[in-house]
Specification:
The complex is a heterodimer. Chain A folds into 3 domains: 23-53; 64-186 and 272-417, MetI-like (MetI-like fold); 190-270, no CATH class. In chain A, 62% of the residues lie in helices and 8% in strands. Chain A has 12 helices and 9 strands. The radius of gyration of chain A is 29 Å and the shape is globular. Chain B is α/β, with parallel strands linked by helices. Chain B folds into 2 domains: 23-122 and 224-328, 3-Layer(aba) Sandwich (D-Maltodextrin-Binding Protein, domain 2), CATH 3.40.190.10; 125-220, Periplasmic binding protein-like II (D-Maltodextrin-Binding Protein, domain 2, 3-Layer(aba) Sandwich). Chain B contains 14 helices and 14 strands. In chain B, strand 9 (144-149), helix 6 and strand 10 (169-174) form a beta-alpha-beta unit. Chain B is globular, with a radius of gyration of 21 Å. Classes of the chains: A mainly alpha, B alpha/beta.
Chain lengths: 422, 338
């Protein structure tokens, strides 16, 4: 029988927190954390105290007061009697619009330019190089201001469209007008609309969703689903017999025919812009500020995306394309079937941060008077109410929320295209 | 990362709030220069001239205060501010006073915590349109595109005016007067609206001022005046009484021509008190006895400053109108120097 004795337990002494390497790092970390928390608390407390002394305690009541100013581009109904919160919401939607349009245009342009930069054609490759270097080396604010100045100075005023011998004329059988105040294009209208659903009643965040749009989108989605089933069927037939049935007309038909019928039932027609009084009336009005901002942001960001795409493609070893061409694939198919799917894994992560950059750069909108959330909440509301701290904090939260949502969506996409390791 | 963002903002706000409470008069004396907020460029009111020196109606007020406090009319650091940045600049202590066509309103005085020391120009909001549009009244502007400086009272008046007249309009928000001018001249907006004095000043810089008309409607009261931060009454008094000295001098007939002579003593006790040969008014403000004399020697009295910068002999060509002395049927009136 053996008796096991534990070694005498060393009793814990307070000094061991510093002298014992087992505890020291923990002690230091806890100490730093506590100091940091105290520092933050002091800062916040100090700010609140000082603002209270100034007679401006931190409060958000101003958000419910009438904004009293007008906003030109509104995606939802708004007038000057609505609250500051409502005005901020209008601005938020404008920010989302410019970010959305900008990200799409920048991606399309950037991918094309990135691929063209690798072209074997010397002139094309060099032109794209010049594009990239010029756009990414000049601050985006200057591009925005330049785009706006070009629009204002080079396009005709609405006045020029008036009279018998008008100096300017509309394009596409009088349906599109390019003016220095913006571009007027036809708008889709329905003579038998289903109506709108109003969300959130009378609250500041209320908005109407068009049922017509929802129905059309649902029908399109169903069409795409059926089209995919047809593709699967065609794949199966090809695998079985080696002959692929011709399906493109069927796939197109299941998407287009139901949509056309629905549009006909809804009484779809176009509303054309017309010169009335000072401005064109009717149609969809794309303001000069929106276009200038959109073009400048997309051209600028496209230059960065082009470099990312180029880098992504170059990262795929040459053996891949050689193997593909030895299988008899043509260059276009090599790019779309072999190179790009692999390159996407390299491209997506830096692409996300460029989308985030574009979204944050959109806050330069005020330079051309585009009323995004920086222009409404961080501009006029801040200025008219004098609530700097509250407005800036809210603004930061909003941008943080937008950026995190973009990241989430893009990371989800990244996971879906990344290499599946077996 | 989230915390560091918030922290930065909080620190800045905290510092700004801390800097706002100290004796501004002592600060200015110790610094040797006056930091004066002016507009980014409005000819006649505040704009750099050909040699780069600031001049204008508002600028002269800054210079008069600098002369009274520091005995040097050139010891002024001019800080150009936009309609949006001006209040933050003043509240944060970046500038000691703001002389920038700023309208005295209840909420700016009470809620934003500023002290308007007086009114140096009685103005109202007007509209300017190219004469070829054939518009003769602001009531005909339904559907027009209107250029407007953002962060101003005019922005709010405009919304109210169009709303109460059941008219629609397309606002084009703009940061500075220069940008507004560019857009207006290029025809990107039909109408430019701001204070009538600002319209006159802007029109004077156009190549063909005759091709633009200022519509007869004045849609608001815009009493413009210099302002300082709330809570530093000593400094507020200095700026207030410097402005009043300019006004009183005109009322009493003290001009830059006869001031030297009057400074050696006159039969009118109020002139003597103003120019410091009698009484201790300067001492009460914490300034030398001849402070008002120095302030007046910058550009003369209120009337002379008006005529030299924006009066009928200048390209801006504003009549005195409401801004005449009370004796002449205007509203310019200073409390007595006693």
């Amino acid at each position: 029988m053996t008796t096991l004795t534990d070694p005498a337990k060393e009793s814990f002494k307070l000094s061991m927190l510093i002298y014992d390497t087992r505890y020291r790092s923990m002690t230091i970390q806890i100490f730093v954390l506590i100091t940091f928390i105290i520092f933050v608390f002091w800062l916040v407390n100090n700010t609140i105290d000082n603002l209270t002394d100034l007679g401006k305690p931190v409060e958000f009541r101003f958000l419910t007061e009438a904004a009293s100013y007008d906003i030109n581009q509104r995606l939802i109904d708004y007038n000057s009697r609505d609250s500051h919160l409502r005005a901020s919401f209008v601005g938020l939607l404008n920010t989302i619009v410019i970010a959305f349009l900008g990200c799409i245009a920048a991606t399309v342009l950037g991918v094309m330019i990135g691929i063209a930069r690798l072209s074997k054609n010397w002139i094309v490759a060099k032109i794209m190089m010049v594009y990239v270097e010029v756009f990414r080396n000049v601050p985006v604010l200057l591009w925005i201001v330049l785009a706006m100045a070009i629009m204002i100075e080079s396009l005709p005023t609405p006045k020029a469209f008036r009279g018998e011998n008008a100096m300017a004329s509309m394009y596409l059988s009088d349906s599109v007008a390019f003016t220095n105040r913006g571009i007027y294009i036809p708008e889709p209208l329905f003579s038998n609309p289903i109506g709108d659903v109003s969300l959130f009643g009378a609250a500041s965040l209320r908005f109407d969703v068009s049922l017509d749009l929802i129905v059309i989108m649902m029908l399109l989605g169903a069409g795409v689903f059926v089209s995919r089933r047809i593709k699967k069927w065609a794949d199966a037939v090809q695998n079985d017999t080696g002959v692929r049935p011709t399906t493109w007309f069927m796939r197109l038909a299941v998407i287009i025919i139901p949509t056309v019928i629905l549009l006909w039932i809804l009484g779809f027609h176009l509303g054309y812009p017309e010169l009335k009084g000072f401005n064109f009336k009717g149609g969809t009005y794309l303001r000069n500020s929106l276009i200038a901002l959109w073009l400048a942001l997309s051209f600028y960001t496209a230059a960065f995306i082009a470099e990312i795409v180029r880098g992504g493609i170059l990262a795929i070893s040459k053996g891949q394309s050689e193997a593909a061409s030895s299988l008899g694939l043509r260059p276009n198919r090599i790019m779309s079937l072999v190179i790009l799917p692999q390159a996407l894994r390299v491209i997506i992560p830096p692409l996300i941060s460029n989308f985030l950059n574009l979204t944050k750069n959109s806050s330069l909108a005020i330079a051309v008077g585009y009323m995004d959330i920086t222009g409404t909440l961080g501009g006029i509301t801040l200025n008219q109410t004098g609530r700097e701290l509250e407005c800036i904090l809210m603004l930061m939260l909003v941008y943080l929320a937008i950026s995190l949502s973009i990241s989430t969506v893009m990371n989800w996409y990244n996971n879906s295209v990344k290499l599946v390791e077996r | 990362m989230k915390t560091s963002f918030v922290l930065g903002a909080v620190t800045i706000a905290g510092l700004a709030a801390g800097a706002a409470a100290a004796g501004t008069l002592d600060d200015v004396k110790a610094r040797g220069t006056l930091n004066c907020g002016v507009s980014t460029g409005l000819v006649g009111f505040a704009a750099p001239n050909a040699s780069g020196e600031w001049e204008g109606f508002d600028v002269t007020v800054c210079r008069a205060v600098a002369a009274a406090v520091l005995d040097d009319a050139s010891a002024v650091q001019f800080v150009p501010t936009t309609g949006k940045t001006r209040f933050t600049a003043l509240a944060s202590g970046e500038i000691d006073m703001l002389a920038r066509n700023t309208t005295w309103t209840f909420s700016r005085d009470v809620d934003l915590k500023f002290e308007f020391v007086g009114i140096n120009y009685y103005d109202g909001q007007g509209f300017m349109v190219p004469s070829e549009l054939g518009v003769s009244s602001a009531k005909e502007l339904d559907g027009a595109t209107v250029c407007i400086q953002t962060g101003t009272t005019t922005e709010l008046n405009l919304a109210d005016f169009f709303r109460s007249n059941n008219m629609s309009y397309e606002p084009v928000p703009i940061e500075t007067n220069a940008e507004a001018q560019q857009q207006y001249l290029a025809g990107a907006c039909d109408v430019y609206t701001t204070d009538a004095s600002g319209l006159a000043a802007t029109r004077a810089t156009f190549e063909n001022p005759g091709e633009h008309v200022v519509l007869p409607e004045i849609i608001s009261k815009e009493p413009l005046g210099p302002l300082v931060r709330h809570g530093d009454n000593g400094w507020g008094d200095v700026v207030r009484w410097t402005l009043n000295a300019l006004i009183t001098a005109e009322e009493l007939g003290v001009t830059s021509a006869n001031m030297g002579e009057m400074a050696s003593g006159t039969n009118n006790p109020e002139i003597n008190r103003l120019l410091g040969t009698e009484g201790t008014l300067g001492e009460m403000l914490g300034l030398p006895a001849d402070w008002a004399h120095k302030a007046l020697s910058v550009g003369g009295n209120y009337g002379e400053i008006f005529e030299a910068n924006i009066g009928e002999a200048t390209p801006i060509g504003l009549a005195r109108g409401l801004n005449a002395q009370w004796k002449d049927g205007g509203l310019i009136y200073s409390p007595p120097f006693r």
